[in-house]
Amino acid sequence: MENKWDLLESSNEDREKIWTKNRTFAGDVWFRFRKKPTAIAGFVIIVLLIAFALAGPLFTSYNYSVQNLEVVNIPPIMKVYESPDEKGYLYITQSIKVVYVEKDGTLGSQLKKVRDVAKENITIYDCNGQEVALYYEQKPYLLADPESKIVYNIKHIWNKSFILGTDSLGRDILTRLMYGTRVSLLVAFVAALVNMVIGIIYGGIAGYLGGIVDSVMMRIVDIISTIPLTLYVILIMVLLGTGLKSIIVALGSVYWVDMARVVRGQTLSLKEQEFVVAAKTIGSSTRTILKQHIIPNAMGSILVTVTMLIPSAIFIEAFLGYLGIGLQPPLASLGTMCNDATENLRSCPFQLFIPALAICIIMFAFNFVGDGLRDALDPKLKK
Q: Quick one: pLDDT at residue 45?
């Protein structure tokens, strides 16, 4: 049989050549990071949330502060009655008002009241020239024909005018959620940036110098840590007043403690390495050693700590807003939205559920990304 295989020429250089694709440190981190589905999912959620908070208000026709008392506490899914002309629907608000709803779920105007019939506990409204009776004595309230007393058919439709409903002042919850997410993310990112800068400088100096300097600086950290973090932030905000700047200053002034401890621990272990000793031997200054040798090698732990601090800062901001010492009306944050929803918790639970769900999603997303970065930046997992 004719030989169908040809021998390839080989050399010693080919035998010793490494055919594996070389990757940089960043490429190796991304390779391990993308192998974790939860980390990728968290990263995608964060990108979507940022786009939702920044670009979302450009596509809505509502303002986060404009009130419309005719559509107060409207839920996302409405229980409606068919109108007598069968061209639309009728919705009864919590304030016992009747709102006309189009077939596609778009809210119209309130019906005009014609008269009250006190003996029968009904109110007559005008619906496009026809009378509609509201029986407000029965529960749930019924809409019926005033003459035949036949109750109109009931349906459940999606609110197309306000996709996530309205709050107690008739403001669009979706629009307020966009601005609230924007404020919460802004506070978290700015606070995390300030914490990273202060923590790196403070912890790096304490860990590198050591001795009495390290003891004094870390005792200051211990004193700050003995005070409950939430109480410390509240005290600072009481002194500075409420507002966005006060929240950022309050969070930035106390959240650097954990970062300083992480950087100090990394510095203590790295300053004994050979490359740091070599840098000292050639006469490099303390600033150069910290800036070019120790801090870059500790960046893995720093990034993981920052990623974990962001959801914690969001939760603290939401907690302060829920207590009523955060942003002042009409500004919206996830915490203030939860605070506003507590008044109608039983009748309109969606007003609290929506911002609380947003807080949970944000915290889970950042925690997933933090876990992924921790595994990706761990050199022991490199294969």
A: 93
Taking only the tens place, the pLDDT of each residue in 185-207 is 888 888 888 888 888 889 888 88
CA 325 to chain CA mean position, Å: 19
Our count of domains for the chain comes to 2
Quick one: tokens of 315?
């939760």
User: Given this model, what pLDDT does residue 12 score?
Assistant: 65
Identify the pLDDT of residue 22.
Answer: 67
CATH number of residue 339's parent domain: 1.10.3720.10
CB distance 339 to 225 below 8 Å: no
pLDDT at 51 over 90: yes
Say whether both 178 and 267 belong to one domain.
yes
Q: Where are the alpha helices (DSSP H) in the chain?
A: 12-16, 25-33, 37-55, 173-209, 211-226, 229-240, 244-254, 256-270, 274-281, 286-289, 295-297, 299-323, 334-341, 350-376
Between CA 23 and CA 360 the distance in angstroms is 36
**What pTM was computed for the model?**
0.82
The answer to whether position 241 is within a domain reads yes
Same domain, 190 and 149: no
pLDDT at 170 over 70: yes
Distance CA 46, CA 327 (A): 23
pLDDT tens, position by position, 364-382 = 998 888 888 887 776 555 5
Say what the alpha-carbon torsion angle 161, 162, 163, 167 is, to the nearest 10 degrees: -170
Q: Which amino acid is at 223?
A: I
Same domain, 243 and 294: yes
Cα–Cα distances (Å) from 165 to 61, 100, 106, 230, in that order, read 14, 16, 12, 32
Q: Is 21 within a domain?
A: no
Domain co-membership, 327 together with 280? yes
Other CB atoms within 10 Å distance of the CB of residue 121:
12
Q: Which long-range contacts (CB under 8 A, 24 or more apart) does 55-60 make?
A: 56/178, 57/175, 57/178, 57/179, 60/172, 60/174, 60/175, 60/178
Phi/psi at 80 (5° precision): -120, 165
Q: Which tens digits make up the pLDDT trace of 10-21?
A: 666 666 555 556
